[in-house]
Specification:
The protein has helices at residues 134-137, 154-157, 180-185, 222-230, 239-252, 294-303, 305-317, and strands at residues 29-34, 39-44, 56-61, 63-65, 69-71, 78-86, 89-95, 105-108, 111-118, 124-128, 165-168, 188-193, 216-220, 233-237, 264-268, 281-287, 328-331. It has 332 residues and is an alpha/beta fold.
């Protein structure tokens, strides 16, 4: 009998969900899990550097969150831009969908969009008469568990200091703790994975293997691939980085290298859950994740389910801050 989705459950008091960030990014607490001896320590994120080895490479996701959530001028329709296929074509999640059949129109900022297609999963292809300015009309699609609408301050804080490549709906939250000063002191490089709405999609299947994983776009350069192959240990900052590196590692495992040294672009729908043999990632920095989510399953594959659930029990007892704006966990 394999693991069930319910085997990744834990109880979280609602008051531990961080709905706003700390004033200073690096003030977060950091739990440290040592996989080799099964120990759990309670540190601060400012201790992160002390756990690095001389030959480590810290890998970060430089995706930039776009204000992808817009409302029609009459307030009756909400659209979440899942993918900008061109300046005037969006693949959207639309609410309420029943009003938006093929041929129906919607206006945002005085610009008319027409439903050109309804995809099998209910997404809509919207074609606009001209480009919609998301910076003016868009809102950040903050995770539902924050229980609030986005504010002006989120435009900066729900974004890493190294965010560059526009396209994400959600932030790669493990990277939110870094400051430019800390980043300058550690050996690092970047890949890009545009975090999609599927990140928050719950696992509804009774068994993880029956869950259909969402797909997300990534990019990694040949020079970065070379650095990864030369590193003694790769420290992945976040589950998004982990998914890209392990996707590429699976493709190259038979050749005896971590990652092929060429520019790489594609999509990944890799779903990592126990048991899993990690080929590229040697250490992982991550935030605390929702119960029974694909993210806590990935972390459990890396550190062991029982050790991770014990860590979460301690995090609750010690009143860590949870989820996107919360504290972090370093697994070595």
């Amino acid at each position: 009998m394999g693991l069930r989705t319910a085997d990744f459950h834990y109880d979280l008091p609602p008051e531990l969900i961080a709905d706003r960030p700390l004033e200073r990014r690096s003030d977060s607490r950091m739990m440290v899990i040592d996989r080799a001896n099964g120990t759990i320590e309670h540190k601060r994120f400012t201790d992160f550097e002390s756990y690095l080895r001389p030959d480590d490479l810290v890998m970060l996701n430089n995706t930039r969150v776009i204000p992808a959530r817009v409302f029609s001028d009459d307030g009756g329709i909400e659209l979440l831009c899942l993918d900008r296929l061109s300046p005037v074509e969006w693949r959207c999640l639309v609410r309420p969908g029943k009003k938006m059949k093929v041929g129906r129109t919607v206006q945002v900022g005085g610009i008319t969009g027409t439903v050109m297609e309804v995809f099998e999963n209910g997404d809509r292809l919207i074609r606009w008469e001209s480009s919609v300015d998301l910076d003016t009309h868009g809102h950040l699609a903050l995770p539902h568990y924050m229980g609030r609408e986005d504010e002006i301050s989120d435009r900066e804080r729900y974004q890493t200091v190294f965010a560059k490549e526009e396209g994400a709906i959600a932030a790669p939250t493990a990277g939110l703790h870094f400051t430019p000063e800390l980043l300058a002191r550690v050996p690092h490089d970047f890949l890009t994975l545009h975090v999609g709405v599927g990140t928050f999609r719950p696992v509804q299947a009774e068994r993880p293997e029956d869950h259909e994983m969402h797909s997300e776009r990534y990019a990694l350069s040949a020079s970065t691939a070379r650095k990864i192959n030369e590193a003694g240990r790769v420290v992945a900052v976040g589950t998004t980085v982990t998914r890209v590196l392990e996707t590429l590692g699976l493709r190259n495992s038979e050749f005896g290298i971590r990652i092929e040294e060429k520019n790489q672009f594609g999509e990944t729908n890799i779903f990592i859950y126990p048991p899993y043999d990690f080929r590229v990632v040697g250490a992982l920095l991550t935030n605390f994740h929702l119960p029974e989510s694909t993210l806590i399953m990935l972390v459990s594959a890396f550190a062991g389910r029982e050790l991770v659930l014990e860590a979460y029990r301690q995090a609750v007892a010690e009143k860590y801050r949870f989820y996107s704006y919360g504290d972090c966990m370093l697994i070595v």
